[in-house]
């Protein structure tokens, strides 16, 4: 569709992010030989799956200039809900899975309703929702003291998070499927086209007859769904749920989208960019860990990277 | 012509992406001269203004002010030399008041260096009064003002700096006759004091009225400067070809028994205070009047984008409630909105995406867009409307204004809506494209569409509508039949003057 010479700006940024990930692995190899052994690369990629899943939802909402700050406790609630409702048995795994995904989508849809119909700014709506989900999670689980709170994730889910299929971790296969689905939704469907249109200009989209409100609600529901899926994978990976397990994913998911080149103002970006961003971020974390960088140092570096990228990309788009 | 030029561009070039907006263009204007820049959209006029005003840095070439070479680092540098610009895109801050916008960065201060809203409003009031503006409240928020008033404020802001060089990019496109007359009075006053004024306009009678010299642009170059120039010659120079009769013949008016496509009864809301009329099949119904008298509300209500407080809308005799633009489109109504850049097109998206936006449901199965069908439809429309674009995948924002408007019209042709609401569809569109749009309207009317057509150009209404409704203070002040209708009659009705006829 486009010649190589006129490569779309956002695709170019996604490429930069992939290149940066490769560079980080090379840097890791310098810092610690063995960093680029296949199994350690796969380990890094598997960790990136969790960030990448949450970033899928974040990509959806950032494409319309929104944001989902309710991710941490939707994810946490999902992890706990899966463990408690299944009671650790494979027999109830499937129904628990559906229940948990449904919860994530429903909470996201409520975010979307508030934003689309009540006109609450996305930052406020999703921040409030994060607080509500935190309260509900703490209250209903009695601060993780409930009888079923100590349940393990069903073995089938644990197998999904840990297993290997055709030389690759199953978590990575799952991510590949999500990448395919998300890219298809954004690239080939009316819903995806409406997403880019709304992110570009909400008023003009409305006047062109697009289903603006339904699309907004759908996007936030997808974000909730993605956070819940990440929560499920995380509890499957770790075996048990814990309080606060969702906290790191807010910053990381947004960072992945920004590193991946999506415009924070909406309208431009691709999930593949966010995927590269997630890999980049996790590779960076691993490199810094390999360098024995302290936690506070890492935090400062993440923050600086996000700022620099936003400044860089913000300037470019102003000039064009 | 002994005086030295006060403002010059010498072989200036500027490219945006692959588009050469200015191509070795030269230009010079004298002190005390009103200099008109004319040309089609995309001819380079706006770019030249931006280059002269310091908004855009040329890729090559020289700018001279009073004979001295200058390199503008930005508009501020130009301001220091007394060179002020009123850009085509409005640059006011919409959520701030008129006063705050007028006196931005030069607010009156007291001994402590603080300003107060009261002092600010008073000072802004004095500025407005100095330039003869009495009907705009300095406390009003910009976003609450009609487009014409915003443009006036934009102009007053530039005037208040007492420019020695004033650049105006299409200052009248958003103005009605009265504000235009005001602007021309200001221009004449400045000319008398030796100020250089450069302006662009797509309205020839304005150019004839006020310009001392005319420079014609085509394809990024200056093709000649003239002290007198006939319209036909100018159009020939601008387009590089001769344009035949400018307004195409209107198809016969539909008979009184023609099907009523759209009826409105006592529709009210916002500035609209209750209007009733019927639009028939095959009819072009003009709507005229001064900006801010309810036209915008009328069009938005008929498109479901604004809710009426009272009144009824009937489609083919059946009452409907239009809750959303989507609902209106499903009922066969299309709107080309006032501002194609913010309400119509999605500028960074491709020509094709913009064309097919309203018919995606038809082009898709189970929510998946049929790429082949989409390409075919977009290509068909681009060919039918002769959209000048390198390909369908480039962002629509890179096209000239006329071609952008064609894409927007194409969107609604694809949607096959029999009721078309055209709000100032030729605003900021070049002569050749205007002509194509006129032809298209006639063709649509002949094939049975019903067109409600608002225009800020009374001449256009007089030539292109079967009858004209003039809105004043939210009501229909006059209904004028097309036969021998003149622009003056429309303007007179809008201005509440007695009709001679």
Supply database-style keywords.
heterodimer; A: mainly alpha; ABC transporter involved in vitamin B12 uptake, BtuC; two-stranded antiparallel sheet; 13 helices; 2 strands; B: 501 residues; alpha/beta; Rossmann fold; 17 helices; 22 strands; 33% helix; disordered C terminus
Q: First CA to last CA of chain A: what distance?
A: 21 Å
Describe the global form of chain B: globular
Number of helical elements of chain B: 17
Describe the global form of chain A: globular
Rg on CA atoms of chain B, Å: 24 Å
Largest sheet report of chain A: 2 strands, antiparallel
Rounded to an integer in angstroms, the radius of gyration calculated over CA atoms of chain A is: 19 Å
Top CATH class of chain A = Mainly Alpha
Task: Tell me which CATH architecture of the largest domain in chain B applies here.
Answer: 3-Layer(aba) Sandwich
Question: How many strands, what sense, and barrel or not for the largest sheet of chain B?
Answer: 6 strands, mixed
Task: Summarize the structure in words.
The complex is a heterodimer of chains A (320) and B (501). Chain A has a single domain, classed as ABC transporter involved in vitamin B12 uptake, BtuC, CATH 1.10.3470. In chain A, a hairpin with a 2-residue loop joins strand 1 and strand 2. The N terminus of chain A is likely disordered. Chain A is mainly α and 320 residues long. The relative contact order of chain B is 0.11. Chain B is globular, with a radius of gyration of 24 Å. The two termini of chain B are 46 Å apart. Chain B has three domains: 233 residues, P-loop containing nucleotide triphosphate hydrolases (Rossmann fold, 3-Layer(aba) Sandwich), CATH 3.40.50.300; 173 residues, 3-Layer(aba) Sandwich (Rossmann fold), CATH 3.40.50.300; 73 residues, no CATH class. Chain B has 17 helices and 22 strands.
Summarize the structure.
The complex is a heterodimer of chains A (320) and B (501). Chain A is mainly alpha-helical and 320 residues long.
């Amino acid at each position: 569709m486009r010649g190589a010479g006129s490569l779309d700006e956002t695709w170019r940024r996604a490429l930069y992010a992939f290149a940066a990930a490769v560079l980080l692995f090379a840097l890791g190899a310098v810092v610690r030989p063995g960093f680029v052994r296949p199994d350690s690369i796969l380990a890094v990629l598997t960790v990136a799956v969790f960030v990448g899943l949450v970033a899928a939802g974040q990509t959806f909402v950032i494409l319309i200039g929104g944001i989902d700050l309710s991710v941490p406790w939707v994810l946490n609630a999902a992890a706990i809900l899966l463990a408690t409702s299944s009671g650790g048995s494979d027999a109830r795994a499937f129904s628990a899975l559906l229940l948990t995904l449904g919860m994530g989508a429903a909470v996201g849809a409520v975010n979307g309703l508030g934003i689309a119909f009540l006109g609450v700014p996305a930052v406020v709506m999703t921040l409030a929702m994060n607080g509500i989900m935190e309260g509900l999670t703490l209250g209903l689980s009695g601060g993780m003291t409930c009888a079923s709170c100590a349940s393990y994730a069903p073995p089938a889910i644990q197998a999904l998070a840990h297993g290997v299929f055709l030389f690759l971790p199953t978590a990575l296969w799952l991510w590949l499927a999500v990448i395919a689905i998300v890219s298809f939704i954004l690239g080939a469907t009316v819903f995806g086209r409406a997403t880019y249109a709304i992110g570009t200009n909400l008023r003009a989209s409305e006047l062109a007859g697009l289903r603006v409100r339904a699309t907004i609600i759908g996007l936030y529901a997808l974000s909730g769904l993605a956070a819940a899926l990440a929560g499920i994978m995380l509890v499957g990976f770790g075996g048990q749920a814990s309080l606060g397990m969702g906290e790191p994913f807010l910053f990381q998911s947004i960072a992945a989208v920004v590193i991946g080149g999506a415009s924070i103002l909406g309208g431009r970006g691709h999930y593949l960019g966010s995927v590269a961003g997630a890999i980049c971020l996790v590779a960076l974390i691993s490199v810094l860990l390999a360098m024995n960088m302290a936690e506070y140092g890492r935090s400062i570096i993440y923050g600086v990277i996000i700022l620099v990228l936003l400044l860089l990309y913000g300037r470019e788009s102003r000039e064009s | 012509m002994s005086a030295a030029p006060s403002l010059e561009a010498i072989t200036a070039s500027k490219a945006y992406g692959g588009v050469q907006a200015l191509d070795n263009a030269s230009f010079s204007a004298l002190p005390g001269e009103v200099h008109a820049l004319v040309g089609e959209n995309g001819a380079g006029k706006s770019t030249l203004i931006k280059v002269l005003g310091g908004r855009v840095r040329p890729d090559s070439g020289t700018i001279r002010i009073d004979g001295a070479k200058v390199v503008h680092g930005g508009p501020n540098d130009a301001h220091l030399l007394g060179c002020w610009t009123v850009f085509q895109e409005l640059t006011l801050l919409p959520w701030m008041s008129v006063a705050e916008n007028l006196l931005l960065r030069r607010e009156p201060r007291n001994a402590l260096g603080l300003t107060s809203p009261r002092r600010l409003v008073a000072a802004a009031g004095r500025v407005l009064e100095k330039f003869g503006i009495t009907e705009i409240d300095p406390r009003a928020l910009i976003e609450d003002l009609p487009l014409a008033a915003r443009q006036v404020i934009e102009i007053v802001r530039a005037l208040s700096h007492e420019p020695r060089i004033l650049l105006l990019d299409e200052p009248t496109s958003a103005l009605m006759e009265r504000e235009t007359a005001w602007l021309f009075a200001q221009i004449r006053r400045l000319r008398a004091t030796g100020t250089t004024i450069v302006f662009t306009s797509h309205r020839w009678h304005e150019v004839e009225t006020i310009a001392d010299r005319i420079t014609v642009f085509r394809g990024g170059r200056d093709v000649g400067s003239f002290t007198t120039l006939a319209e036909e010659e100018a159009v020939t120079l601008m387009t590089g070809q001769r344009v035949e009769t400018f307004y195409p013949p209107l198809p016969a008016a539909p008979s009184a028994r023609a099907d009523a496509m759209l009826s409105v009864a006592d529709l009210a809301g916002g500035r609209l205070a209750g209007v009733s009329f019927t639009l028939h099949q095959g009819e072009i119904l003009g709507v005229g009047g001064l900006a801010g008298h309810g036209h915008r509300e009328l069009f938005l209500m008929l498109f479901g984008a604004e809710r009426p407080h009272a009144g009824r809308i009937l489609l083919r005799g059946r009452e409907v409630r239009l809750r959303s633009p989507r609902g209106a489109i499903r009922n066969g109504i299309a709107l080309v909105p006032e501002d194609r850049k913010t309400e119509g097109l999605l500028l960074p998206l491709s020509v094709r995406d913009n064309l097919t936006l309203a018919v995606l449901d038809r082009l898709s199965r189970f929510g998946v867009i049929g790429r082949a069908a989409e390409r075919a439809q977009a290509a068909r429309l681009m060919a039918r409307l002769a959209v000048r674009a390198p390909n369908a995948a480039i962002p629509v924002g890179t096209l000239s204004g006329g071609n952008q408007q064609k894409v927007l019209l194409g969107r609604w042709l694809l949607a096959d809506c029999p009721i078309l609401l055209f709000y100032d569809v030729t605003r900021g569109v070049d002569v050749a494209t205007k002509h194509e749009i006129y032809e298209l309207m006639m063709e649509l009317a002949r094939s049975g569409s019903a067109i409600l057509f608002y225009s800020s150009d009374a001449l256009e209404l007089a030539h292109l509508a079967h009858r004209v409704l003039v809105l004043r203070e939210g009501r229909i002040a006059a209904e004028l039949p097309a036969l021998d209708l003149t622009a003056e009659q429309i303007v007179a009705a809008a201005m509440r003057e007695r009709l001679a006829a």
